Amino acid sequence: MAKEVVKQDGTTHVENDGTPKKASLGQKVKRHCARFWWLDLLIFIAVVLVIVLPIVYVGYPNLAQKEVNKGVLNITSMSLSDPAPDSFTLELDSVLSTTSKYHPELAAFNGSLHLKDSDPAFAYLDIPKVKAENGTVSHVDQRVQIADMTEYTKYTMTVLGTEEYSIYLKGRGGLQQGGLPKTNVNYNQKITLKGKSSLNSLKGFNLTSFNILTSEQEDGANANGTITIPNPTVLSVEMGTVTLDMSVAGTPVGVATIEDLVLKPGDNSFDMRAVTNQTTVVTMIFTDYKSGILPIDVVGKTAVFNNQSLGYYEKALQSNKLSFELDVIAALRRAGLADALGISNSTSKA
Ligand SMILES: *[C@@H]1O[C@H](CO)[C@@H](O)[C@H](O)[C@H]1NC(C)=O
Ligand SMILES: *[C@@H]1O[C@H](CO)[C@@H](O)[C@H](O)[C@H]1NC(C)=O
Ligand SMILES: *[C@@H]1O[C@H](CO)[C@@H](O)[C@H](O)[C@H]1NC(C)=O
Ligand SMILES: *[C@@H]1O[C@H](CO)[C@@H](O)[C@H](O)[C@H]1NC(C)=O
Ligand SMILES: *[C@@H]1O[C@H](CO)[C@@H](O)[C@H](O)[C@H]1NC(C)=O
Ligand SMILES: *[C@@H]1O[C@H](CO)[C@@H](O)[C@H](O)[C@H]1NC(C)=O
Ligand SMILES: *[C@@H]1O[C@H](CO)[C@@H](O)[C@H](O)[C@H]1NC(C)=O
Ligand SMILES: *[C@@H]1O[C@H](CO)[C@@H](O)[C@H](O)[C@H]1NC(C)=O
Question: What residues does each domain of the chain span?
């Protein structure tokens, strides 16, 4: 068929032999095109492959990656609850902060959480799909398995005791921008907490009320009181029943227990019950601490939820030394025991 057309063209060309060279050239091109249309098609395809495809399949993914790299996730609220030795329930609200002018759809992906400069992930999260815009809010609510206990314990210790830190969300997932083909991007996003990121070693921890219990108690406690713990972060942490070792200059003086401790953002106050060694305490106020004021050092001992020890909280609490001052004589007086011990109003005279 094509050959026939070429023949006809050739005949026409002969008829117009006398026309100027320009027209003749046009005709030549036309004939060339007709004869070598397949070559032109190949050249066209080659141009597409060489110029367009790299833009779509190399330039575009690179651009997509570059734009994704501009994103920072700001956590506006975070709650760790229902803890078990190997898992916890995570609720997380975050706001995407990005300077990119593109707003692609980001597919859901399996994200891993890492401490800065740490290769092993401490946990994996199912990150839901989002439209990436500055200010996009996303909500995560899932049961999370702890992936690496050493890393997770490092994380809890970091949250408790390190003033400034950041964690990273890593992973790989699909990205779709308008009608362009779907591409994959790598995530390595910095995660920041709104406001303060650290519990700041529980600075501000204090015993704000203290009573000596003179009647027999079912749990064996001989003192109770109120412990306050400020939490400057947006984190809420359920730690279970927490026990604290109390000592004075290295000598144990008792153990305090806080039932069902949930540390919420802001100022927290918890009821505590304590079993103190009254012999040791009374001896102290008659010897080295005649003022009656005991400088008490406090270190976490256990954290138990549903009858299971939570090693990752215990290690963090054990590594964090707290202290408060306790006016024992005032407490003895309130309990009506000062006279029996022969202690006058402010200072013991032993
Ligand atoms: C996210 O956090 C960064 C650094 O903490 C801050 O500069 C930015 O304004 C925050 N963005 C949003 C949307 O909160
Ligand atoms: C992103 O959103 C934040 C808060 O809504 C705003 O302060 C910031 O200027 C926005 N940044 C850009 C690049 O639009
Ligand atoms: C996410 O990836 C990790 C590592 O490949 C894997 O162990 C984990 O099961 C994955 N999680 C989900 C929900 O797919
Ligand atoms: C701790 O609480 C007691 C009793 O309320 C108070 O007298 C004391 O000043 C507080 N200590 C600190 C460091 O705030
Ligand atoms: C301590 O125990 C006494 C007597 O049982 C009770 O009246 C008081 O409310 C308790 N205080 C705290 C802070 O638990
Ligand atoms: C109280 O402490 C003394 C030493 O100071 C110790 O001998 C005694 O066993 C302790 N009592 C209890 C009940 O732990
Ligand atoms: C809690 O654990 C202890 C020992 O680990 C066990 O003896 C006890 O029965 C358990 N209690 C409950 C309510 O599971
Ligand atoms: C406190 O002690 C002083 C003398 O040591 C005494 O005069 C005063 O009455 C006492 N006050 C009380 C409330 O016991």
Answer: 71-193, 200-341
3-state helix, strand, coil in the chain (%, to 5): 30, 40, 30
Which residue CA neighbors atom 1 of ligand 3 most closely?
110
Q: Which ligand is nearest to the CA of 166?
A: 1
Give me ligand 4 centre to Cα 261, in Å.
21
Per-residue pLDDT tens for 1-22?
A: 444 444 444 444 444 455 455 5
The ranges of the chain with pLDDT < 70 are 1-23, 344-350
Each residue's pLDDT tens digit, 264-323: 999 999 999 999 999 999 999 999 998 999 999 999 999 999 999 999 999 999 999 999
Task: Work out which ligand 3 atom sits closest to the CA atom of 126.
Answer: 13
CA pair distance 274, 225, nearest whole angstrom: 8
- Note the ligand closest to the C-alpha atom of 97: 1
Pocket of ligand 1 (CB under 6 A): 72, 74, 95, 97, 135, 192
Q: Which secondary structure element, helix H or strand E, spans residue 68, and what is its range?
A: helix 60-68
| 97 CA: nearest ligand 2 atom | 1
**3-state secondary structure (DSSP) of residue 1:** coil
CATH topology of domain 200-341: Immunoglobulin-like (2.60.40)
Calpha distance 272→63 (Å, rounded): 56
188 backbone dihedrals φ, ψ, rounded to 5°:
-150, 70
Domain 71-193: top CATH class: mainly beta
Does the C-beta of 349 come closer than 6 Å to ligand 8? no
The pLDDT of residue 49? 78
